[in-house]
Structure of Amine oxidase:
Amino acid sequence: MHLLLLWAVAGLLRSTLACTAPEAVDVAIVGGGLAGLSAAVQLAAANKSVMVIEARDRVGGRVLNVELPNGGIIEAGAEFIGPTQDRVISLAAELGLGTFATYNTGENVLWHNGTRLTYSTAGPDVAPPIDTLSLIQLATALAELNSMALEINASAPWTHPRAVEWDSMTFGSWLDNATPLQSARFLFDVATTSIFAAEPRDLSLLYTLAYIAAAGNETTPGTFERLTATAGGAQDRRVTGGTQLLAVRLAERLGMEHISLSTPVRHIKRIDEGYKVTADGLALRAKQVVIAMSPPLAARIDYEPILPAIRDQLTQRLPMGSMGKAVALYDTPFWRDDGLNGQAASDTGIVRSTFDSSPEDGSYGAMLGFIAADQMRKFDAKSEDEIKAEVVKDFVNYFGPKAASPTSWVIQRWDNEKFSRGGPVAFAPPGVLTQHGPALQQGFEGIHFAGTESAPYWIGYMDGAIRSGERVAKEVLETS
Ligand SMILES: Cc1cc2nc3c(=O)[nH]c(=O)nc-3n(C[C@H](O)[C@H](O)[C@H](O)COP(=O)(O)OP(=O)(O)OC[C@H]3O[C@@H](n4cnc5c(N)ncnc54)[C@H](O)[C@@H]3O)c2cc1C
Ligand SMILES: *[C@@H]1O[C@H](CO)[C@@H](O)[C@H](O)[C@H]1NC(C)=O
Ligand SMILES: *[C@@H]1O[C@H](CO)[C@@H](O)[C@H](O)[C@H]1NC(C)=O
Ligand SMILES: *[C@@H]1O[C@H](CO)[C@@H](O)[C@H](O)[C@H]1NC(C)=O
Ligand SMILES: *[C@@H]1O[C@H](CO)[C@@H](O)[C@H](O)[C@H]1NC(C)=O
């Protein structure tokens, strides 16, 4: 009886404590990925008191280093950076992180129609080994996409005179017309699924053009090739020690006392002085709030009062890509000795695009296979063993029998991650950008939206995430 009474008193005390006035900060930043951390560091530098509230037990979000027993790391999320990604490049330098060129020596593999071909990409006039008519179609379609993208204002794609027309069709239906030859089309299919982790039929043409326009900076227009290229493109370089170090070092710079881990935010409520932010295990008052995550994740938080319809409906309409990585580890990067750069493009298999993901010193081999779009959807609910069996078949097709026996694996399925629900980016199907596009960036009464999806340049990339964090910090400072 006494014990029970004590128990009840303790419970009462706990609930009383939970009801006492929560801690207060100038800005609560919800999400500890590169967007949230970049915003937090900028705001702290301007003497704002901040708290980053992160759902996971780590910082980084869609950047994640997986440690290997041999001391190496595999990047299970974002891995590559390249020219015109000015913000991520300078951030790496500011944080004392080195970079190195993605391995790109030797021939590419093309697996097409059941046949393996290799070809060189060194030199000015190199082209994939497909028939001449298909090559012409490929080149014409590329030129047309780039010239349409050139007309797009990366900050406001919906203002283009043909925005409604382009937003009324999918990239797939545009390709049906532009590249009827299968040998030209399949190369676009491979590129699209590796860039967006979505099929061409999933994407609005306007959104695809905006994404191309975003693959550049204020002075260098975006091109489709910059999205797909290794040398000189988005896959040009890697970060020594792995990209999660960008997030870890930003967090250290901010100070871990300004970051609350393992505290998913559930509820954001307007109060007199701003907002009350309630997470599992934490409640906080803040004058302003930054939501730094993809729109579909932001939609899982309960806002009181509800957000304006344009914003809420935007978040109802942007799905995450379907994305996984399967990295097979080998004693050596054996494909290098066979004259291959480790990059394959394929029209079949679970893996249709690969990269050499070995460490800078090549001391062991890491073959990265992207599992994207329809392929990932097929395997989201399968076992890891089933995935490995399929991936290894593809790697043997592309790189020969030595690929048959990896020493170990890293497999990461972002679709099954509670606080990501897919990757690399939330994309726009037809009809969304022209109706709801402005709500990507537009804040509302002290609530501000960051995340790579809201960036003008390098949407979907680490660089875009950092740009969005810096933009939102400026916005907060201007309105406080
Ligand atoms: C497989 C893969 C490969 C990629 N490859 C590249 C690449 O090579 N190069 C490149 O530049 N980019 C790449 N990207 C994209 C890149 O990772 C993202 O663009 C970038 O990391 C997004 O950062 P962010 O801060 O906008 O969002 P996120 O990293 O998603 O951060 C959002 C944060 O919010 C947290 N969160 C979610 N819900 C809540 C909640 N309710 N309360 C509190 N916190 C919450 C999440 O846990 C997360 O930490 C890749 C992504 C994936 C998945
Ligand atoms: C922040 O505060 C410090 C110490 O009070 C001061 O030296 C610095 O100038 C302030 N910086 C800004 C941007 O206000
Ligand atoms: C854009 O990128 C190019 C190439 O990396 C670079 O030379 C230029 O300085 C960048 N422009 C801006 C405004 O940063
Ligand atoms: C694919 O291969 C088959 C025979 O193996 C051939 O008949 C067909 O023309 C090829 N298709 C293309 C697009 O190369
Ligand atoms: C692009 O759009 C932005 C946002 O609407 C606007 O401020 C800017 O002036 C536009 N740029 C051009 C060149 O039209």
Observations:
- Residues 132-150 form the longest helix (19 residues).
